[in-house]
Protein 1
Amino acid sequence: MTRDEGTYKAQSQHAAKAETRHEGTYKAQAARAAGNTASEEKHGRQRTKMVAPPNDYLVPERDALLTPVLECRHLGIDFGGLKAVEDLNLMVGKTEIAGLIGPNGAGKTTVFNLLTKVYQPTRGTILLDGQDTAGMDTARVSREGIARTFQNIRLFDTLTVEDNVKIGLHNQVECGMWSGIFRAPRYWLSEQEFHKRALELLDVFNMADSAGDIAGSLPYGAQRRLEIVRALATNPKLLLLDEPAAGMNPVETEELMDNIVKIRDQFQIAVLLIEHDMDLVMGICEGIVVLNFGKVIAKGTPEEIQANPQVVEAYLGKQE
Amino acid sequence: MSFLIALINGISLGSVYAIIALGYTMVYGIAKMLNFAHGDVIMVGGYICFIAMNSLGLPPLVGILLSVVGCTCLGILVERAAYKPLREAPSLAVLITAIGVSYFLQNSALLIWGADPKAFPSVANFPSLKLLNGQLTINAVTIVTVLTATVVMVGLTFFTQRTKMGKAMRACSEDKGAAQLMGINVDTTISMVFAIGSGLAAIAGVLLCSAYPTLMPTTGSMPGIKAFTAAVFGGIGSIPGAMLGGILLGVIEIMAKTYISTQLSDAIVFGVLIVVLLIRPAGLLGKEIREKV
Amino acid sequence: MDKIRNMSKESRSNFITYGMVIVAFLIMQALSSMHAISSSMTGLLVPITAYICMAISLNLVVGVSGELSLGHAGFMSVGAFTGVVAAAALAGVVESTMLRLLLSIIIAGAAAALAGILIGIPVMRLRGDYLAIVTLAFGEIIKNLLNNLYVGLDARGLHFSMTDTASLGMDGGKVLVNGPQGAVGFPMISTFTAGFLLVMFTLFVVQNLINSRSGRAIMAVRDNRIAAESVGIDTTKYRLMAFVVSAALAGMAGALYAQNYTAIVPKKFDFNTSILILVFVVLGGMGNIRGGIISAALLTILPEKLRFIGDYRMLMYAIVLILVMLFSNNAQVRMRVETLRDRITRRVDDRLGEQDAKGGDAR
C-alpha cells in the first residue's frame, strides 16, 4: 500500500467516526422537529431553527473595521464519501499575513483549490472582499482578486521570465486579437505597458536581470519567486502561497520572509500561506489556522498555536 | 423484418469493428499511443489469408492461422523497430511514426500485390441459415463473424482478468514504472499487447474481407479509422468499452444506411461519436482522469 | 539601425522568416521566367504555397496552442469549394481575375472561419486524444457532406441541394459542384504571385498573433492550463481563437489551391491530407514556423523528385519519415548517426586539409 493510500484510509476512518457523531445530532434534531409538528400545525407555518453563525474569526486589530478580504463559512468538500474539508470557518483581514498549517494530508491544498475554484465546494460560502464567489470559475476568481502559487511549481516553462509575468498581467492591460494581428496603435501602447510593468514587478524580487531567460531553466528557488511575481501581476487582493519555501535553503527562506512582508506592505494585500517550515510560519504569520483531517483544530497567534496541546498532538501524536 | 435484418448485419459489422478496436484500445491502454498502422495490419492479414487460400490452395482454417501468425510477428516487429525506441518521446512523434509505418505497409502491399482489387473468397463455405420460413436469411459469414467475436471477447476478458500476463498488462497500463518495480518485464508485456492486437487484426481482416470481398492495399484504412472511432466511443483504454463501442458503431452505421441515407452514413456515424464525447468526454465506459493540482 | 538592434529576439526571427520566403519567391520567379525549371515543377509552385499556408496555420493549433488536430484538411476543403463557387458567382460582376481571386479567397476564409467556430465550440470541451479524434470525425463529416453537395448557378443566382443535380431546380445555367465528382470546369486563376502573397499574409497573421497579448495567452494555456486559469485567462476562449484563426487561414489556402486546377473533388481533402500537413508541422519542429515552411516545401517536392524510382517513391517517403522521427527523438539513434557523421566530416576535413596544404605549396 502506498503512503497516500494509508493516509486516505486513516482519513476515511476518521470521517466515518465523525459521521456517527453527526448522525447522533441529526437524530436529535429530527426528534425535536417531530415534536415541533404539533405547534407547526397550530400556526400553519414552519418554525425556523436558529443557529449562531461561526464567531471564532480572528483578524489583526488594524483590519478589524475593514471588510475582510476572505471569509469562508462552513466550507466543505466531499470526494466520494470522504469529507476532505469539513466545516471550515476562516477569516483573513485586509492586510493580514495568515498561515494555514497542518500535517500531511490535512487538506490544506484542497482549501486553496476550493478558494480558487479548481474544485467547486460541496457546502458553504466563500466571500471575497464581501462578495460571494459561488458559481465563479478559476479565471473569474482570479479576476476578482485571488492569486495563487502551486505546491508543484506551475510556470509557463517554455516561455521567458518576462513573458510569464506578462501573462500574469493579462487582465491588467487590454489589447484585443485584431489589434494584435494588425499591429494597431493600441498594440504598441499595450506592449510598452506590459514591458514596463513586468520589469517593475520583477524588480520586487530583484529578478529583472533574468527577464530574458526561459522560465523552465531557472533554478528552483528562482522558479518559486517567479511564480509569486506572476501571481502578484494579476493585481490580487489575496495572495495564496502554497509552500513557498519548499526546497529553499535557510538563507533563501530568510530572504523570502522579508519579501513576503515587503509585498504585503507595498501592495497592501493579504497573504494566506501554507508552509511546513515553522520558522517561516511563526516568524511572519499574524494569525494561524491549523487543519487536521479536513477540520480546523486550532486558531490563534503563533504563540497560542505553539502552546496548543491539540496541535502538538496532531503533529507528534498523543504523548502518554 | 427489415429492422431485424439490419440489426443482424449491424451486429456482424460491429463485431469486426470491435475486434479491430480491441487492438487499438489495448495498445493505447499500455503504450498511450494512437497506433494508426493498426488498420493496415488488417489489410496484411487479409492478403496473407488470400495468398494461402488462392495461390497455395490451403483450407480456410490454415489460411486464417497463417495470417494470425504472420500478423502477430509483424506486430512485434513493428513495435520493436519503430515504437520501442520512441517510448520516452513526445506522443506526437510516436503518432507520426505510426503514420509512417502505415504508409510503409500500404506501399509495400502495393508493390507486392499490386493496386488492383482481389476478389476474396469467403472463409465460411457453408450454406446460409434460413429462419422464419425463409423470410430471414442469415448468411454464413455473419454467423462466423458473430461467433468469432464472442469467442475473442470472452477469451480476452478471461486473459486480462485471470492470467498472470493479463494482470501484468493491466498493471503496466496503470503505471509502467510501478509495474517495473514489481518485477514485471514492461518490454515483454508491451510486445505481448502488440502481438495480441495484431493477431486480432488478422482475424478481423479475414472476416472483413469475407463479408466485403474486395482486397486492396487501402482496404484497412477506413475500417481502421472506424474501429479507432469505436475504441474512443467506448472509452479508449477500456476493453469492454471497445467491444461495446465497436458493436454500437456497426449497428448505427447499418441503421443509418438502411433508414436515413447511404451517402451520409459516415457523417452520421461520426456525428454520433461527437455527441457521445460531448456528453461523456471520456467515452461510454472510459474513466475520466483528473489532473492533480 | 538602432531599431534593429533593439528589436527583440522574436521579431528578428520573424523578419528572417519573411526574408527567407521573399528570397525563395524571387529565386523561383527568376528561374521560371528563364524557363530553368521543369514543367512539373512549375505546376507544383502554387500547391507548394498552399501547403506552406496550411503548415503555418496548423502550426498555430498544434505547435502554439498545443492541440492535436487531425481534420485540418476539412477546413481546406470548405475554403476550396466556397472559393470556387464564390469566384463563379462573381464572374459576371468582377472583371479583374486578380480581384476575383482575392475576393474568393476572403470569402473562403470567412466560410472556413465559420466552420471553425461551429466545430470549435464543441471540440474545445475536450482535451488531448479525445480532441484529436473529434477533429478527425469533423474532417470526415465535412468530406462526407461535400460529397453530397450540389451547387448550381443560373440567371436567378445560386442553387444548393444535398440530393442530386435535378433537385437544384435550375433554369439553364451551370452546375458548379456535382456531388462526388466535385467542382468542375472552373477557370484556373491562381498564380504563383498570389500564392506568395498569401504565404506572406498567413505568416503576418500567425507571427503577429503569437507575439501579442492573445498569443501569449494561447501559449500559456498550452504550457500549463491550470496555471493559465489561475492568472485569469479564459482558456476556452484562447484555444478557440487559435483554432478559428487557423481554420480561416486554411480556408484561404484551400481557395488558392483549388483554383490552381479546373476540377477538384472532396476526396482530395481527406484524412490523408490532414495527416500530410501534420507531418509538415511535426517534421519542421512543433511551433517552429520557419521549420514548417521548409518541410512543407521539401516534402511537396520530394515525391515529385522521387518519381524516377517509380512505385518505390511512397515507400521511400514512409521510410524517410520513420527514420527522421527515430533520429530526432531517440538519443541512441541520434548518437549513432552523429558518430557516423563525425567520421565522415573528419575524413572530408582531412582531405580538405590535404588540399589546403597542397594549395599552400602551389602558391
Protein 2
Amino acid sequence: MGASPEPRQELNRVVEPGVTALSVTVHVSDLVLERRTPMWWWIGFGLSVGLLGLFVVALGWLFIRGVGIWGIDWPVAWGFAIGNYVWWVGMASGGTLISALFFLTRSEWRSATSRLAETMTVFCVACAGIMPVIHLGRWWYFYWLFPYPNTMALWPQFRSPLHWDFVAILVYVAGSVLFWYVGLLPDLATLRDRARRRWQRVLYGLLALGWQGSSLHWRQFKILYGLFAALMAPLVCSIHSIVGLDFAGGLTPGWHETQFPPYFVFGAALSGFAVVLMLVIPLRRALDLTGVITLRHVDVLARLMLTTSLLLSYCYLMEVFMPFYRGEEHEITVVMSELGGYYAPWYWAKIILNGVVPQLLWIRPLRLNRPVLFLVALCVVVGMWIERYVIVVGGLHRNYTESSWFVFMPTFWDWATLAGSVGLFLTGFFMALRFIPIVSMFELRELLHKKKTEGGR
Amino acid sequence: MSAHRGTGHTVRGTLAAFDSPDAMLEALRHLRQEGFTRLEVYSPYAVEEVDDLLGRKPQALPLIVVAAGVLGAVGGFFLQYWGMVLSYPLNIGGRPLNSWPAFSTTTFELAALAILLIGFLAFCTICRLPRLYDPIFDAPGFEQASQDRFLIWIAEREGRDDTELLRRLLPHGEGVHIDEVPA
C-alpha cells in the first residue's frame, strides 16, 4: 500500500494504513484524559456560552412578557419557535440515521462517525424539545399534554397530530439519549481504566456503571444495541412523519398535503447529513482524526446529502404541482404568493440552497474539496431553516379569509431565540468534545481486527 | 463455597492475558477440552466464537424486550381507548369513538418507549450493572481488558491443583494468579 496513492483506493479506505487498535484507543482517550484543552476549544466554547447567555436572556424576557415579544399574531401564530423546532429535530435525525440505519446495513464507514453524529443528535434534540414548550403561551401548563389523572377528568386529545408529536418527541429524546449512553458504556470503561487523575477515575468509573467487558456483558450489549438500532431507525422516520402530519393535519392552505410525512423525513435527513459534515470536516483535522475519519467518510456523507437533496427536490416540485392538479383556487393563490409574493425571496432561497447548490456534489473534485463541501453543507443547513420558515409562515399568512391576511415580521427576540438555541447546541457539543470519547473506540477496535484478518488472507 | 453471582467473583481463580483474540480463543478451546467449565472472557470488544466456546446463549433479553413491546403497545392503546371511549367520550359529528387509526402512532411510540426503558433496565439487571466495584478490578492487568488485551478467568476447581495443567495449557499467555476476595 502507499506507493501510488490512487484516488480510487484512497476513497475506499475506512481507516488509513498504520492505524492500530491500540493507537486509536490511546489517541481518542488521550483527547479526553491527557491533552491540554486547545485554544480553539476555549474560543469556540466562549462564543457558544455567550450565545447561550443570549438564549437565557431571551427566554427570561419571554417568561416575563409572554409570546407577544415575538412577531407572531393571528393568523400567523406559529412563527420562529415552531420553525426552529422542526429545524432542530430535523438535524437531529442525522445522528440517528448514521448510527441506527447504517448499523442495520452493517456499513463499515459508520463506526468512526457514529459517536460524533449521535452526540450531535442528543444536543439537537435538546434544542428541539425546548421550542414547542416555549411557544405555548402559558408554558407552565405544558404538563397538560401528559395523560395524568386530573380533577377536571380531562384527557389530552389523543387523536390530534400535535399530541402524537408530543409523544413522539418525548420518546425520541429518551431513545436518542439511551442509544447514545448504551453505546458509550464500553468506551467510558476504557476511560476509567486509562485515567490517571482521581477525579477522572471517579467520574468515568461512575458513568461506566462498572462495565467489565466480560463475555456476559458483550453478549447482552450486542443484543441491546442491535435492538435499539432496529428501533431507532423506524422511530426517526416516525417522528419526522408525525412532524409532517402536524402540518398536513391542519386545514391551512399549503399545509394540507398528503406528501408531507416523507417530505419531512427527506428534509430531516438532508439537514442531518449536512450538519454531520459541518462537524466532521473541521474536527477530523482539529482532533487529528484523519486516520479513522477518512476521505471515504466525507465522500459517503456528501453522496448521502446529494441523494436526499434530490428526494427533497422532487417533493418541492410536487408541492407546486399538486395545487394546480387539484385545481383548488385558494391553494393556487398560496402557491403563487410563495413563488412571487412577499416571501418569494425566502422561497427561492430555499430552492437554491437545498435543491440547486447540492447538485455541485455530482462533481467528484468538488465533493472531496473540504472547504467547498463545508460551504455546501452550510448552505443546506441554512436552507433547511428557511424551508421550515416558508412552510410555517407561508401557509398561515395567506389564510382562507382575505381580511385576515398578515405579514409576519420577526422581532429581535425571534432572532435572539434562534441564535441562542444555536448557542445551547454548541455549548453542549463543545462540552461533549472535551469530556467524552468522540469516536467509538471499541467499534474501531473490532473493525480494525476485521480488516487485519481480511488483509492477512 | 459461596454461590456464583453473575460475573461477580466469589471464588479464587487464575487470570490469563493474551495479546490477540486468536491466541485467547486457542487457549479457551484447550481449556474446554480439559473440562474447565467455570470460565469467563474479558475483551476490549465482542469476540465472536467466545459464546459458542463457553456454551452460552442469550435468552432472557430478547424475550423481555418482546414482552415490553407488547406491554407498551397494549397499554398504550388501552390508555387512549380508556380516555377517549370509556372515561370521557366526546361525540364529534357522530364519528366513531374508538378511532383506532388515530391511536396507532401513539401506540407505536409508547411501545417503543417501553422497549427502550425496560430493555435498558433488563440489560442492567442481567449484567449486574451498576456494580461499581468487583474484585476482578483488583486483578493486576485487568485494566488492559478494556483496551487491547484478552483475558480468560479460570475458576479454581475445588479440591484440585490445576497449576501444572494451566501452565501447560497456557504456554503463550501470561498467566497471572489472583486471589479473589469474596464479594
